[in-house]
Amino acid sequence: MALLKPALVAAATALVAATAAVLVPGAPEAEVAASPAPPASAVFHPVVREAAARTGDYAAEYTVYRPADLDRVPGRLPVVVFGNGACRHTSNDELLTVETLLAAHGFVVVAVGGFDEPALTENGSPVPAVITDAITWAERENGRPGSDLRHRLDTRRIGVTGHSCGGIEALVAGADPRVKSVLSLDSGFFADGTLGYGRENLRKLHTPVLFVDGGPADVAYENSGANYDLVTVPAVRATNPAAGHTGFVYGQRDGNPDPSVREEAVRVLVDWFDFTLNGNRTARGSFLGAGCGLCATPGWTVTSKNF
């Protein structure tokens, strides 16, 4: 187990926002009270990055990101499984910062790739089992005697996401009945079924889905939009043309180093899973309604349907 460096932990604090009050349903205005659970964006935990216990024969090795002091987290934690760009199934370096920041806001992230594998230029093909096997790993770990995560995970609240080719893996895995939310990051199925999975898979989705892309300079821009148009489940599309295909991951705005665009993207991930897994009304307002918070963020365009 490794506690993350203070500099990386400090970077996460840029995402912390003020806790918002929520109306208690049915209560008179005079009895307005703060939500028992503040928005995930208003919560920050130091994070541990550790190798996933090898408890079975899975399609990949996994790395886990989680709040360091589980006793300071009330209740059980939702789980988010994260797939890599280029369908890298060996290394877990590409999304390290994004996954750390997501975990800092109260999620257990099970990420594809080994804990101590070097950064590789691996270029794979979609294997959706790397996502669904990670869900199975979390279920087993939640019940395994001796596990730090025993009885700490809420396996009824599982989200899947992935960047680029990893997003295709997540979209296919979204058909799994254990999944409660899907996020496609700079991704989407090709019309001709390139990479082995076509847009007919969109009909198998049964949960809310968010498509995030980096605008016309993003190679996934067309697929992201077309996939959003085709889905029949509740869906949101969020676009920031300054990010291109990798700006959200590497912290680049218009091709120049700018960590703030990555922080904005992480806030989108945090709010989406807080909304769809935790049911947080403040997080919901980031995407829906007249006061849509992300809509008011410079550079972002947001559309939604079927809610």
Write the layout of secondary structure elements.
Blueprint: E1 2-3, H1 6-12, E2 21-22, E3 33-34, E4 47-51, E5 62-67, E6 77-83, H2 96-104, E7 108-112, H3 129-143, E8 153-163, H4 165-173, E9 181-185, E10 209-213, H5 221-230, E11 235-239, H6 247-250, E12 252-253, E13 256-257, H7 259-278, H8 281-284, E14 301-305
Parallel strand pairs: 6-7, 6-8, 8-9, 9-10, 10-11
Antiparallel strand pairs: 1-4, 2-3, 4-5, 5-7, 11-14, 12-13
Protein model, in words:
With 307 residues, the chain is an alpha/beta fold. The chain has a single domain (56-305), classed as Alpha/Beta hydrolase fold, catalytic domain (Rossmann fold, 3-Layer(aba) Sandwich), CATH 3.40.50. It has 8 helices and 14 strands. The protein has helices at 6-12, 96-104, 129-143, 165-173, 221-230, 247-250, 259-278, 281-284; strands at 2-3, 21-22, 33-34, 47-51, 62-67, 77-83, 108-112, 153-163, 181-185, 209-213, 235-239, 252-253, 256-257, 301-305. The protein is globular and about 50 Å long. Mean pLDDT is 90; it is low at 1-35.
